[in-house]
Each structure stands twice: as structure tokens, then as C-alpha cells.
Amino acid sequence: MLSAQQNLDYAQVSGGTPAGMLLRQYWQPVAVSRELEARNPLPVKVLGEELALFRDKSGRLGLVDDRCAHRGASLSKGDAALRTVRLDERGIRCCYHGWLYDTGGQCLEMPTEPDRGAQFCKNIRITSYPTEEKYGFIWAFMGEGDPPCVPAYDVLTDEAPLRIQNKKLWRCNYFQLFENFADPAHTAILHEDTDVEAAFGEVPEIRSEPSRHGLSVIAARKEYERLSEIVFPTACRFIIPLPDLFTDALFWYVPLDDHKTYSYHTMVPRGVTAENRQAKIQQLESFLMRNGIDALHHEDRIGDQDSFAIESQGAIADRSL
Fold first, then answer.
1. Of 15, 130, 199, 315, which shows the fewest CB atoms inside 10 Å?
2. Taking a C-beta distance cutoff of 8 angstroms, is the pair 250, 155 a contact?
3. Contact in structure between 48 and 79 (CB atoms under 8 Å)
4. pTM of the model
């Protein structure tokens, strides 16, 4: 049990909260790369902040406050067909009065103020964050000071003939996802009728121990032990034991706000060769696309079961109970 205040200290992620300040000191994935290819600019919400992710016409990435400093119009949520989103060689332009911002958030132009705008725009800067595109994701660093290197975990960097990146929306606080991940006891009950029944069918003995990157959770069954790692502060490294498709996986739990979370996934199935690559893609995508949605959005039976169990606790679970 936690006190009500301790519960909020873990759960709340806006600026100035304990968890929010901590999470901002680490790189977080904010989009799968192909999302920006499909829609540029892309509205994103991370740690309670509404942001615009874009690639300007010179190819530079930017992540800035989604609201123009002038009248608060959105920079990213418009319709390209209606010309209510505007990209420029030097940045992103507000469609309302044409204020132009570079990838660092600095205002460069105020077209409706021809006399004094060239000087006054130097005083205007909206919030911006460093970004990097690596391993099929776009990453952001929202903390203070110089950012560290983007993490290079094995699943991201190993040479592999097949790597799949996708994401899933959870309508609950991010910390509930950590509790679920560190709880392999539930798999034998909740997931007893799934593709991984043979692997999860027995209630395991559980032990945990500190690891180099966080916490190792070992679920021991009669035939084998399954190791999962919580990689501080928001990632999880584990194996998905699909029949004939053991898959190394790394997930990040990234809060949109206190009540919603995206999990970003990178998955590398084992035993993929040039000859069976397409068959393995189809096999993995049949697992990822329970309802026939595109492979960007992970919707499988196991995930649906987890969603119900985790989200039905409430947007923020009350651990004082």
C-alpha cells in the first residue's frame, strides 16, 4: 500500500512533479518514424505537453510547442488539403498570420508586421526539445542540460534481417503498465486461452534481483525460467514466446499525460532467414493485428486482455487501498 500522496508522486508526470522531472531526464520515443512519413507535421502529446513534431523542407527535425505564440493556433493539427498546416525551408509556419518558427522554436518571421516584425520576432521563442531519429523511432529529450546519448540496447542495434516497430495506446497511467510487466503470475490466469498458453500455462515461482539497467524478474516454471528486465526508467526487455516465433522485444512506456500512455515496441523474431522472412512477417503481423488494423498499432488478444485488466483499475490505480 502507498499513501495517497506517494501514489500521486509515482503517477503524475507534468512538469514540476517528481516523476515528471525524472522522466524528462531520459530520451523517450515520441513517434514511430513511419508516422511522420505518413503525416508531417504530426501532433504528439508527451508528459502532459501538446507538441508539434515536424520535418522542415530542408530535412531538419523539430519538436516544438503546438501553439503559436501569437494567438494560440495549432501548428500541427490542421489539414494539408486545406493548407492549414504549413512547412517551410526554415521551419514550420502558423497558418493564421504566418509566424515562422525554426526547429529550435525561434520565431523568424511575422509577415503581418512588416515594419517592426523583423526585430520583434527575435524576442519570441516557443518551447522546443532536442530530437534524434534512430532505430525506426523519433526520440525526444525534454530535460535540463545537455542530453546524453540515445540508448543503444541490443534489440535496437543487433544486426537482424527483420525488425518491427509499432505502438499501442493504453487508457491508464503508465505506472500500471510497469506493475503488470513485473507480475508474471497473472499470465497463467489472464492469458490461459492464447497462442502462448503452453509457455504461460503454469503459475510460476517469482523472484527479482537488481540488474545492470534496473530490475530482473525471473518467472520459474518446471521446464524453464523466463527472464524479463525492467530497464530504468520506462523500458522493458523480454521475450515473447510465440510458437515457432520466439521474439526478442523491448517496450517503452511513455506517458501522454497522467491518464493515457503509449507503449512503443521494437521486436526482433529469432530464426529469420532470407528464405523465410516474408512468412515470418506474416506470422508476426497476424499476432499484432488482432482486428485487422495496420501493423503500426499493436492489437493482439494478449494485449486486449491486459488492457481490460489494467484499465479497469481506473485511470490512476488507487494504491492506498
1. 15
2. yes
3. no
4. 0.93
